[in-house]
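Hi support team,

I've been running sequence recovery on a batch of backbones for a student project. Most finish fine, but this one hangs at about 90% for roughly twenty minutes before it completes. I'm not sure whether the input is malformed or the queue is just slow. I've pasted the structure tokens below so you can try to reproduce it. Let me know if you need the job ID as well.

Thanks,
M.K.
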């Protein structure tokens, strides 16, 4: 049996630094703000903090355009502040992982500035990026940017185009150049000497581009080809990650997780194989990409909530895919996704608390490493007060709005605003809601992105004062994960006859000693079900305050614990 790794029992707390806590009242969160809130994070009980990018940046894309990988964004603080954050986190038993963004850099990075200076072959930095001559007087191929528009920008002095799968200020690095790879590996080892505990790797599945850069398929009504269809999992991506593992990752007791677009289960096992030759785990996006509108494909403009059947099928698929072969990352939300309870649950005043707890329990009892995005432990929601495009800051949302309205893909700009109110990345980036004071206690200055008005009802102070809050429910879940081996090593199995249930998600986790049965109601309806549970089972955790055992109530979740060799009997009640 493979030796258990420390990160298999860990829980990760993701921080978007600009929106967490402002310490100097300039309206932008910073490193000292995080330092000031470390005791809050420790109280929650997590093991690891994942920091979204804190490097020097022009901040075109929320810090994912890095101009210096070995310096700190001065708006967020100094390297001395980071050193203090790392030291104090470690003193509290909290590990720190950084965001590694090396599919592309900022156009202000020294490498690109030297690359763009001349196309002379003697300029080694020209080959640090992907430059191509025009084809028939236009872009080298039909690729579109993930942030709208073409994926190529012309550099008029040289007469060549450079590739950028994202914003034009984010030129793609040429990973086929060994000098690029070694420069990246040297930088990673520099951070290792600093004492960090690992990396989350941004769009790492895109680093190896297909040979010849062929045209991509064009979807209906689109002007450009979708490069995601042919760039993900490129021809040499595993070779490059194995080289990274050999020269960097295997040298440290780190936790590594790759953000991987365009992922299949078979391909995923190569990235996160249990042999440890590449990464420890990865983020796949299937379960967060579903839309409840059966007539809408991924990426189309629909606001229908995902169906439980789709979510369930995806979770079951990925739990089985990694069983004994790899390790999963468990998440509902992050800095790029809608708020958990708004998209997957019910954020109405009546059911928000129950729904958020139900979703939390369902996720945290799966096999894998759970990720909590800042504010999720409070039940923070999408900002329904976003009414005009001027309120948005996210480059992806702004580009999508203007391109869509100009191309008249939707009947009106209002339709696009309705879509963004549900799906914009700004929903996850509104400032953390600490208390009922000015700007939710985030800053005394007007924040860079407006605070969700519901902070008067949803905030950390209220949560910490309420023993029945979502915060303390998360705390219990984290504690159970640390204590119960079955959550780490137990086999996952969907309960019999639950496959086609569009209201209840019921599954078990089983090892040689004990079994857990998780029953979660995804609806606002009271339901009747029958499940086999031993009479001597223990109700381990639930989100209602009383054990009413006749039916399954709205958004109810119950977790039963019993010895694996117990004799199961059908419960006499209707709930299961």
């Amino acid at each position: 049996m493979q030796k258990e790794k420390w990160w298999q029992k860990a829980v990760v707390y993701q921080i978007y630094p600009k929106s967490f806590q402002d310490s100097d009242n300039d309206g932008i969160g910073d490193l000292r703000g995080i330092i000031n809130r470390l005791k809050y994070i420790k109280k929650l009980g997590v093991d690891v903090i994942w920091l979204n990018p804190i490097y020097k940046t022009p901040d075109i894309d929320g810090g994912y355009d890095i101009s210096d990988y070995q310096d700190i964004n001065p708006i967020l603080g100094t390297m001395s502040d980071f050193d203090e954050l790392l030291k104090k986190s470690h003193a509290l038993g909290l590990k720190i992982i950084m965001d590694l963004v090396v599919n592309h850099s900022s156009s202000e990075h020294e490498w690109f500035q030297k690359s763009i200076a001349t196309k002379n072959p003697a300029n080694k930095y020209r080959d640090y990026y992907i430059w191509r001559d025009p084809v028939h007087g236009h872009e080298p191929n039909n690729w579109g940017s993930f942030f709208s528009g073409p994926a190529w920008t012309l550099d008029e002095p040289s007469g060549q185009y450079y590739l950028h799968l994202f914003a034009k200020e984010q030129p793609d690095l040429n990973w086929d150049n060994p000098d690029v790879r070694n420069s990246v590996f040297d930088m990673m080892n520099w951070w290792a000497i600093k004492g960090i505990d690992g990396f989350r790797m941004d769009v790492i599945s895109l680093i190896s581009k297909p040979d010849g850069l062929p045209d991509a398929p064009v979807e209906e009504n689109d002007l450009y080809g979708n490069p995601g269809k042919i760039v993900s999992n490129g021809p040499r991506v595993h070779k490059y990650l194995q080289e990274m593992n050999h020269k960097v990752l295997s040298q440290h007791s780190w936790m590594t997780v790759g953000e991987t677009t365009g992922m299949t289960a078979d391909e995923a096992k190569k990235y996160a194989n249990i042999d440890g030759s590449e990464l420890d785990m990865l983020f796949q996006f299937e379960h967060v990409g579903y839309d409840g509108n059966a007539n809408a494909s991924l990426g189309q403009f629909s606001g229908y909530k995902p169906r439980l059947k789709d979510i369930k099928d995806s979770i079951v698929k990925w739990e089985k895919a990694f069983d004994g072969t790899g390790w999963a990352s468990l998440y509902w939300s992050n800095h790029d996704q809608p708020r958990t309870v708004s998209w997957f649950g019910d954020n109405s005043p009546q059911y928000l608390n129950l729904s958020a707890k139900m979703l939390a329990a369902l996720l945290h009892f799966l096999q894998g490493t759970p990720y909590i995005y800042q504010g999720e432990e409070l039940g923070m929601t999408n900002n329904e007060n976003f009414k005009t495009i001027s309120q948005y800051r996210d480059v992806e949302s702004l580009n999508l709005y203007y391109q869509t309205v100009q191309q008249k893909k939707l009947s009106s700009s209002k339709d696009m605003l309705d879509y963004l109110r549900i799906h914009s990345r700004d929903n996850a980036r509104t400032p953390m809601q600490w208390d009922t004071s000015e700007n939710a206690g985030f800053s005394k200055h007007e924040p860079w992105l407006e605070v969700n008005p519901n902070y008067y009802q949803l905030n950390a102070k209220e949560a910490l004062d309420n023993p029945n809050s979502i915060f303390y429910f998360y705390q219990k879940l984290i504690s159970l994960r640390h204590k119960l081996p079955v959550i780490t090593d137990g086999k996952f199995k969907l309960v019999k006859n639950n496959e086609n249930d569009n209201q209840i998600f019921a599954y078990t986790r089983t090892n040689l000693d004990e079994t857990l049965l998780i029953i979660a109601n995804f609806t606002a309806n009271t339901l009747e079900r029958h499940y086999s549970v031993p009479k001597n089972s223990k109700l381990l955790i639930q989100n209602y305050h009383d054990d009413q055992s006749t039916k399954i109530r709205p958004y109810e979740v119950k977790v039963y614990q019993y010895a694996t060799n117990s004799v199961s009997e059908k419960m006499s009640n209707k709930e299961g």
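--
Follow-up from support: It reproduced on our side and the slowdown came from queue contention, not your input. The longest strand covers residues 514-521. No action needed from you.
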